[in-house]
Amino acid sequence: MSGRTEPTTSALAQPLRAPSLGRAALYPGLFVLGALVGVAGALVQPGWFPGGLLLALAAEAGLCVGAGRAVGRRGGAVAPAAGWALAVVLLTTSRPEGDFLFAAGSGSYLFLLGGIAVAVMCATLAPVRQPDGGAVRLGK
Asked: What pLDDT does 134 receive?
């Protein structure tokens, strides 16, 4: 027998814990910040094509990656991505007067699809919740 202590339960069997009060208050703020970045990107991307498009997508990626790393959880990257997506989807609808924000051009489609791809990549690559306990090596 070795002197190591083996974990009593699997990492998958550990219960989920509610986020701390500070972290729970941070998520709505990140959601609103993501919505603001989406609105700003929608206004910037047609004005300076293609630089505005790249700037808008870089701003979204920076916000999602930065929020995920700052919070240390995947929810930190998902909250601004969800805010961005909601704001952009709401901006794509036309009004009864016939006004719209997005033209039917390649730049608008690249902004919509590229932004969704960036949001999915950032949310997927964000840090995940790690199980409690010491690090173990498999196969030993």
From this structure: 59
72: left (phi over 0), alpha (psi -120 to 50) or beta: left
Q: Report the distance separating Cα 87 and Cα 34, nearest Å.
A: 8
- Please provide the DSSP assignment of 111-135 as one string: HHHHHHHHHHHHHHHS--PPPSS--
State how far the Cα of 32 lies from the Cα of 128, in Å rounded to an integer. Answer: 22
**Before 50, cis peptide (omega within 30)?**
yes
- pLDDT tens digits, residue range 54-110? 999 999 999 999 998 888 788 888 999 999 999 998 888 877 776 667 777 788 889
Q: Cα-Cα-Cα-Cα dihedral of 110, 116, 122, 123, to 10°?
A: 180
Smallest Cα–Cα separation from 90: which of 26, 14, 39? 39
